[in-house]
Amino acid sequence: MGLKLAIGGKGGVGKTTITSLLARCIANIDPNNRVIAIDADPVTNLAAALGISEHPPITPVSELSDLIAERTGAKPGTMGGFFTLNPKVDDIPERFSRERDGVKLLVMGTVKKGGSGCICPESTILKALMNHLVLARKDIVIMDMEAGVEHLGRATSRSVDALVAVVNPGARSRIAAEKIRQLGQDIGIKRIVVLGNRVRNSEDEDRIRQSLSDFEIIGFLPEFDEIAEADRVGVRPFDDPLTIPSEIRSLAAKFLTLG
Prior knowledge:
8-stranded mixed β-sheet; Rossmann fold; globular
């Protein structure tokens, strides 16, 4: 069915940059790879990391009011009542994604009323779309998640190949990894791994290994000066996909064996 990855981590650990670079690498490895990058973080910035223009602005799927009303039979923002729980969503990836370098971007958005578990038209569309992307399509899907995994239901989560908790050597992101693992286990994700990012030396690696000794550690990535510089000037790092570092390319190849 194609690789399905969820990338999570506390704010600032670099998960969005990693999501974008993995998506671009995988698309570059084989032009036949159909890659969809999902921005499922409330702070949406995956478009910038992918170098995809936001002019005109990208409307998240959760804010496509007319589409949601058409497909569910209920006005967004309403709670309860009667509406379709299995809306048509298979045309959304093609209609509402933006593409660059073989990577399609879909911005999911969030449900602003009632919480992540609310039974409302917006939540129904988001969950149905995620089910479609993970269960019904052969595309490679890489999801930039917030620390939680609110868009993934139990049925969907069982088909996610891995939930990747991105951590830095600091104590706070290690604590976040425990929280992400618990959330992933609660909805039935079978494989939960740690990726160490911005690792400066072997001492940093050892610190992560020791503090997360009961996790599967998929790898470590160093601090790349170009990523920091690209962030400062507002461009995507490694604009030419062929210049993406070998450490990230090797990680992408490793993940492809999971699909």
